[in-house]
Write a structure and sequence with these properties.
This protein is an alpha+beta fold and 235 residues long. Helices cover 21% and strands 25% of the residues. It has helices spanning 5-14, 25-40, 65-71, 74-84, 161-166, and strands at residues 16-18, 46-48, 54-58, 88-91, 97-101, 111-112, 123-128, 139-141, 154-155, 169-171, 178-182, 187-189, 198-207, 219-223.
Amino acid sequence: MSLTPEQVHLFRHNGFLKLKDRLPEEQVEKLKKGIWKDIREEVEPVVRNREGRVVRISDVVDRDPVFLETASSPLVLDPLACLLGPNIELIKNRHNHATLRLGSENRPEGLYRDVRQWSRTIFTVIFYLEVTTVENGCTIMVPGSHHFPGLNGRLHGEEWTRDLLDQAVPAPMPAGGMLVIDSMLFHGVGQNTTDGTRMSMTMGYHSTDELSDLEDPKRILVRGERPYGGNDLRR
């Protein structure tokens, strides 16, 4: 579903937007099945917690086809086209992972940006595969912080971090829900104080680069084309 002008304005102003549509329940179950399989079998590349348990699987678009199928679904690309334009690439070397948030991991991680370059931000999409609440560690964000200049990519330990944390708002999401974030927005993960898990998949997108005429194997064209507009063609 395309975004309304009001939704586009809210995204530009706040730096995030909850998409109205949800992934079908059948799609969510396929994703969860594939994630649990690779977690149990410890299929590399993975990230482990301090106890050695696998809590993240990386490079998911090169695993089961269901991951790329979901990441390139019209349910996510249609609204992204209202923000990025008609030509969209999926980024393989930023995000492209599925995460399992365990109830035993209650250490706050602070706030961070997914990128540092103002001139080349990306849009992060989080696909929530389980109901996420304040209790089990939903995403927290500081609205409008993607406009802040002169800040590093991660806020942890600085004196003014508390001021930003005080302005952070939680974003509870249903299973199958999708959240789009401007990757310059300061955000983080809440604490999971329950005995359950919180599973999600995260992908990064940007518009195609009209000044590049090189194929990049770390980019997948998921919508439109790659038009080249460099002025070196004008002789």
